[in-house]
Amino acid sequence: MVNFGADMAQLLLLCVLPALFTVVGTIARLGVPDVLSPDTPTAIADVAKEVGADPVFLGRLLRTAAAKGLLQSEDGGYTITPLGALLQVMAG
């Protein structure tokens, strides 16, 4: 007998992981972790200008990264979390 709950959860995880891998890799390659502070929020437009990215596209990436704990969304901007700061070393 198939356990649809557990099987569906595993299938969903398999579908989501490649997308998350892409988000993490893209923000690292763009250098987003290097321009964000852990203390002072930076607006999406400012991050986009600094890394040379489209602000709409970058906003989507930053929201996803924040949902996964790499960034923190606050006061209309983003800060880097300790988890996200690990990307500073990995990208460099």
Helices and strands, with pairings:
Elements: H1 4-30, H2 32-35, H3 44-51, H4 55-67, E1 71-74, E2 77-80, H5 82-91
Antiparallel strand pairs: 1-2
* Assigned CATH superfamily: Winged helix-like DNA-binding domain superfamily/Winged helix DNA-binding domain
CATH class label: Mainly Alpha
**Helix and strand pattern:** HHHHEEH
Which parts are unreliable, with pLDDT below 50 for 5 consecutive residues or more?
none
Which percent bin holds the helix content?
A: 55-70%
Largest sheet: 2 strands, antiparallel
- What is the arithmetic mean of pLDDT? 89
How many discrete domains?
1
Coarse structural class: mainly alpha
Strand order of the largest sheet: 1-2
**What's the Cα radius of gyration?**
15 Å
**How many individual helices?**
5
CATH second-level architecture: Orthogonal Bundle
User: Gap between N and C termini, in Å?
Assistant: 49 Å
User: What would you call the shape?
Assistant: elongated
Strand content: 5-15%
The strand count comes to 2
The CATH topology is what? Arc Repressor Mutant, subunit A
